Amino acid sequence: APSVLTMNGHFASIGEAPSEDQYELGIQVIDEEKEFNPNLNKYLQITQTAHSGFNYHLISVFGSQSTGKSTLLNHLFGTQFGVMSETERRQTTKGIWMSKNKNEAVEGKGMADNILVMDVEGTDGRERGEDQDFERKSALFALATSEVLIVNIWEHQVGLYQGANMGLLKTVFEVNLQLFLKDKQSNPRSLLFFVIRDHLGTTPLTNLRNTLIADLSNIWASLSKPAGLEKSRIEDYFDFAFAALPHKILQPEKFVAEVQKLGTRFRAGHRKANGFDQELEGGVFLPEYHRRIPADGFSIYAQGVWDQIVNNKDLDLPTQQELLAQFRCDEISREVLEAFDVAISPLEEQQGEGVRSGKPAVMKDLGNTGKASRMKSIKAFEVEASRYHKGVYARKRVELEGKIDTRLKALYHGQLSAAHKSGVISFSEAVASAVKAGQKKGASYEFADIVAREKSVALKHFESEAKSLAIENVSWSNFKSQYNLYEKDLDEVSARLRKEEMRRLATRVERWVRSRLGESVGLEFNKLGSGRGGSGAPETGEKPLTEKDLWDRIWNVFIATVKEAETRFIERAKSFDASQDEIEVGLWRLRRKSWGVLRVKIDEEVMEGNILLKLRENFEDKFRYDEAGVPRIWRPQDDIEGIYTKAKESTVTLIPLLSRFRLAETYAPPDLPEWIGVAPNSVDPKDEEDLAPIGGVDEEEGKSLEEEMTILSEAKRQDLVVRFKKTADGVYVEAKRSAIGGVAQ
Ligand code: GDP
Ligand code: MG
Predict the structure, then answer these.
(1) d(Cα 419, Cα 417) in Å, to the nearest integer?
(2) For 25, phi and psi rounded to 5 degrees?
(3) Distance in Å, CA 226 to ligand 1 centroid
(4) ipTM for this prediction
(5) What is the pLDDT of residues 144-183, one digit of tens each?
(6) How far apart, in whole angstroms, are the C-alpha atoms of residue 308 and residue 317?
(7) 68 alpha carbon, closest ligand
(8) Pocket of ligand 1 contains residue 739 by CB under 6 Å
């Protein structure tokens, strides 16, 4: 499309790449082909209008061709719309042109900010015999966008009811009814501002005004109105204002002065009364004229409106406004999310890296950063988007919050999971080091107290992190369930630590049992070395008491020792809050382990060298001492052989006794299975691998109680008898020798 050159300037037309100087004069919004210029928003940006919110104004001018409309606008607003050359009388290109007011203040009374003026060319198709399509379409477009419609009219045309102007006004009224029929809530009004040109002054403006009003009423009355609006009055939709200007060519100075005066009326004003009898106070811009399209959405809105008009669709402004709101809210949301992304992505990356490397870190100050970014984003959206359709805005705001919160939620959950992990680790470490410190001091530390103290520290830590992430009135940011999960985990860790503590306690108690049994069982075996302990009467065949109830005494000392150990264990375990169940398992293990300790101790005592020595001592005691315990001095006449045989026989009887753990009374093994008891239900076989199987107790092991209680095998027993006899023989030979030797002396 050709651009229009006027003077030295340039109006940007469609298809031109936008650049600042191309917009020097303005922009061709719609060209003669009825194409909409997609660069309109660019123009609004270049002229600093795009971010003015509602603080801008739109004026359109209507009137017959060559009535000096463009000339008027150029004087009023410092614009440079195309003016028909005096010499060529060539018509300016059809279309709608826009330019921003360049006159700022007139005589100290400021004009309103950001006045956008639309010069509508070619609205007088009827005059040139063309179809009235463009006239109708541009009228619709102007009404859908503009607050003030300047109607430019020669003085001598006033009262010519059949004139082209009146036809144009009829069109304006008709499209207005069509347009605002559907839009009852917003009740849009427009100002028709009649500027009467070439006013001679002989007819006062009031008279001209009355004539025009009478004509307008007639036109309104003649309109066929849509159903439901039959009774509507013209003043329901329009306010009217009037001005007259002197002849520009005949009275140029007066013309300029009057135009300047007229310019001061383009500022904010308010209403004194309605309709025909209106009087606007202040300027012509009443808030109710404003179409309430935010400046940054104006180009989209105007384009949507124009598309509907061009395609002869029913123009439905509320729908257009909603569509605009959706489009703009989405755009604003996208911009806001981009900024949010810049703030949040690095944190997400940092967190992701931590997770991938297996070292999730708790990020510093995340709550504040997240909150600030969220607030900033929503606020930014609010500022721009809340100017649009309320319903759409509210919906899009919820959508935006949803998107922001999805990101924050993931980030925050990651943060809490890191806090959870590190919290559990520090908790176990803190407990372990407090236990270690307690052990070092030797004082009996209270495990339960340590756990309780460290748990409360760990919970407080987590809680303060969770609280720092909480967002007011946002339900997902209440991290109660994460907190509960954390506490549950701490309890599990506590239970595990307590179990370990129980093991340590068990080990200590077992050590104590080992040392006690080592002494007391050793003592019992040592008594074997004395053949006269309990002083039985060998000649009556009665075995000495000490030997006969060896196992009874060992068993008794064993169960007494374990009983004492159990008491210690229970007392200590209770101090760290072990459960009844845990205590039972501990005691069960203690009994089994203690039996093992005893069994090892017995095996040690009956080891070949040890037991042989004891048997020899036992024998020598019987052989070398008399009944009164006096050492024998062998003389040749003594019955060495008899005494030897008796002592030897007596000692040999100990071997079968030693071979089996049997109680004297029942002549049976102690009821070990009964004493150990059945395994508590909570015993996990996986945890008990360190427990050696016990014959008769762990039946599936295939070892009987009898076998468990066998101290010396048959072969060992026989071997022991042979060895002992040899030892005894040696002692006998020595005695014999000493007897003979004593005589020789
Ligand atoms: P438009 O077609 O309505 O935009 O009219 P123009 O502004 O292009 O002006 C058309 C012709 O009218 C030009 O030759 C102007 O010089 C002339 N003109 C402009 N203003 C006035 C005026 O106030 N009175 C008269 N008589 N002629 C004017
Ligand atoms: Mg013009």
Answers:
(1) 5
(2) -95, -25
(3) 38
(4) 0.99
(5) 899 999 999 999 988 876 666 778 888 888 888 877 776 6
(6) 10
(7) 1
(8) no
